[in-house]
Amino acid sequence: MDPEIKKQVLRKLTYGLYILTAAHEDDLAGGTVNWLSQASFSPPLVMVGVKADSHVHQIIERSGAFAVNILAADQKEVAAAFFRPSEVKDGRLNGYAFEVGAETGAPLLVDLPAWFEARVTDTIKRGDHTVFVAEVVNAGLRNAEARPLVMWDTGWFYGG
Ligand SMILES: Cc1cc2nc3c(=O)[nH]c(=O)nc-3n(C[C@H](O)[C@H](O)[C@H](O)COP(=O)(O)O)c2cc1C
Fold this sequence. Notes:
alpha+beta; Pnp Oxidase, Chain A; four-stranded antiparallel sheet; globular; binds flavin mononucleotide
């Protein structure tokens, strides 16, 4: 296999962009992710690839749960704020207001148009990212009209 072609081909996979959040006791974290997909209708499962050495990975392992906050097309700057390490200040996570998820305790970012909470059912540790499979246990829609942020439109890449 030609590694350069492999990179270019994998970069043609299409993605959305989401803020993945989790909480365990007083510890909160959030990170921008694109390696996320629905994986089953019944039960409603999702799968997400999470960097093994990240803070959010550590918390998901401890809590067995996470939330996914769906970005709107005009919220690229929110995505950029969650490439950085997580910081809670003045009741905000990386500068953004949140409420506490009723099912998982994970932060739900109030400026984003939609969210769901999920409980981990399977953990696949392989390579530099872990795949968490999780069942959706709660969902909320703040703005039904919002168009989601699409990775391709940002000019960013994570993959290859
Ligand atoms: C465009 C882009 C997409 C990303 N997608 C993912 C992803 O799918 N999974 C992941 O674990 N990290 C992804 N990251 C990295 C995380 O955003 C970043 O490592 C994390 O927010 C840092 O948080 P930490 O303090 O928990 O390590 C991505 C980064 C960028 C720039």
